[in-house]
Each structure stands twice: as structure tokens, then as C-alpha cells.
Specification:
The protein has about 150 residues and is an alpha+beta fold. It has a single domain, classed as tt1808, chain A. It is built from two helices and nine strands. The strands form two sheets. The protein has a six-stranded mixed β-sheet with strand order 4-5-6-7-8-9, with helices on both faces. The chain is globular and about 50 Å long.
Length: about 150
């Protein structure tokens, strides 16, 4: 798999039914090792180990409904009282982070109304915070610590 702009973590891989798989500690099972999953696992482990996000408050492939269609967010970070705080969208490294990607995650936010959106392709990482007073999304220089959400 491609090197990412994220620190390594102790990953576990296997071959299942002749295909590569990676252990997802959040879902507690092996999943297909796709380029997007490679990014997701690295990014979520980075949030846990470097930004103090509790692993138990991260839901992977969380279901949501948009325009009567069933969709899945790559990950959602929840607060202590079960409220959604951040939606995370992961793309494969070869997929550029474009306006279309931000439009996709913004559509998902119609269901959750979170204050933070995060997008990564493993090479480029972006985090936005909703500015209630200004009524717009502000790009942050760095990802907030969990306690700052």
C-alpha cells in the first residue's frame, strides 16, 4: 500500500478468501484492505493516538439517511452524551480532495448537524468548523484535540 502523510501504527493484516484484509479495531473484525480502508485506519488511529479521540466514541461506516436514500459516513465522532461531533470522509490516496468531496460530506451533515467536518485522502487532511456567528465553514490550521470539540 502507498505511504501516507500519517504516522504508522501497529497494524494487523491477513489474507482472507485470497484477498488482503486489515484488522479494524473500531469494528473489531478484519475488513477488506482497500486503498480507502488503508487511509481510514491510519487516520482514525492518528486521531486516537495523537489527538486523544476515544476509540469507543468513533463509529465506522455509520448509517445515515439523505433524501430518503441510505448512505454511510466513513466515520463519525461522538461526544460523551451520544451527540455527533464530527463527520470524517476518507478517500483513497489517488483521489484528490476536491469541492465534490466537501459537497458530499456537507450533504451527510444534513442528517447529523455536526460542528466539525474532516476530509482526508491520507496525503492531504482538512478540518472545518461551523462558525455559527458567521454562518459559514472555517478551515482550521490543525485538527482539534478531542476535548476541544
Amino acid at each position: 500500500m502507498q505511504a501516507l502523510n500519517l504516522p504508522p501504527f501497529p497494524l494487523r493484516t491477513a489474507e482472507i478468501n485470497g484477498r488482503p484484509a486489515i484488522f479494524d479495531a473500531f469494528r473489531r473484525r478484519y475488513v477488506a484492505l482497500t486503498p480507502e480502508e488503508w487511509v481510514r485506519q491510519h487516520f482514525l488511529h492518528w486521531l486516537v493516538s495523537h489527538k486523544n479521540y476515544p476509540a469507543g466514541r468513533i463509529a465506522v461506516e455509520a448509517s445515515l439517511q439523505y433524501n430518503k436514500m441510505q448512505k454511510r459516513a466513513d466515520a463519525i465522532v461522538y461526544g460523551g452524551e451520544g451527540q455527533a461531533l464530527m463527520i470524517i470522509e476518507c478517500k483513497a490516496p489517488q483521489v484528490p480532495v476536491t469541492q465534490e468531496v466537501f459537497d458530499q460530506i456537507a450533504r451527510y451533515n444534513f442528517s447529523f448537524r455536526v460542528a466539525y467536518l474532516a476530509v482526508t485522502n491520507g496525503l492531504d487532511h482538512y478540518c472545518c468548523r461551523w462558525d455559527t456567528a458567521g454562518g459559514r465553514w472555517l478551515f482550521l490550521q490543525d485538527f482539534p484535540l478531542y476535548d476541544g470539540l
